From TrEMBL:
Residues at the active site: 130
A GO molecular function held by the record: cyclic pyranopterin monophosphate synthase activity
Catalytic activity: (8S)-3',8-cyclo-7,8-dihydroguanosine 5'-triphosphate = cyclic pyranopterin phosphate + diphosphate
Protein name per UniProt: Cyclic pyranopterin monophosphate synthase
EC number: 4.6.1.17
Classification lineage: Bacteria, Pseudomonadati, Pseudomonadota, Betaproteobacteria, Neisseriales
Length: 161
């Protein structure tokens, strides 16, 4: 169930952090994804693993995990939460010369983990850009979105194809 109410504003229209103190602790999970399209040189560097800065996808994986953990420091009204799981996968598309990141975040708590998954996907893609910008400044980040979430009051939500 999605409400039409903006929960990050009080009755006077002022921004505030939502009070989740009375909500029950439940298992929550979210999956977010995004894509970066690169030129042939950058794509071949990823495939060969010979970027001057190191293993591009390995470092992007660690950056995505770190991004998930730092979400409340980056997004002003997000609650700091104790993540119980962050999983990061990449898939490569040779035809498009693109890399898709898929991040799953989990916790057991009083608020969801969607923002952590979305932040992780964004940071992972930005890290790929940073590591390959010397050979391709035309890279395009796109399609960053929530794919799935479950748990909490609103229950299950799944992106429709």
């Amino acid at each position: 169930m999605i409400s039409d109410e903006l929960t990050h504003f009080n009755n006077r229209g002022e921004a505030h952090m939502v009070d989740v103190g009375g909500k029950p602790h439940t298992k929550r999970m979210a999956i977010a994804s995004g894509k970066i399209t690169v030129n042939e040189t950058a794509y071949n560097k990823i495939l060969a693993g010979d970027s001057k800065k190191g293993d591009v996808l390995g470092i992007a994986r660690i950056a995505a995990i770190q991004g998930a953990k730092q979400t409340s420091s980056l997004i002003p009204l997000c609650h700091p939460i104790a993540l119980t799981k962050v999983n990061v996968d990449f898939s490569l598309n040779n035809i498009e010369r693109s890399i898709t990141i898929c991040v799953q975040t989990e916790n057991t708590g009083q608020t969801g983990v969607e923002m952590e998954a979305l932040t992780a996907a964004s940071v992972g893609l930005l890290t790929i850009y940073d590591m390959l910008k010397a050979v391709d400044r035309s890279m395009v980040l796109s399609q960053i979105c929530l794919q799935h979430k479950e748990g909490g009051q609103s229950g299950l939500w799944q992106r429709q194809s």
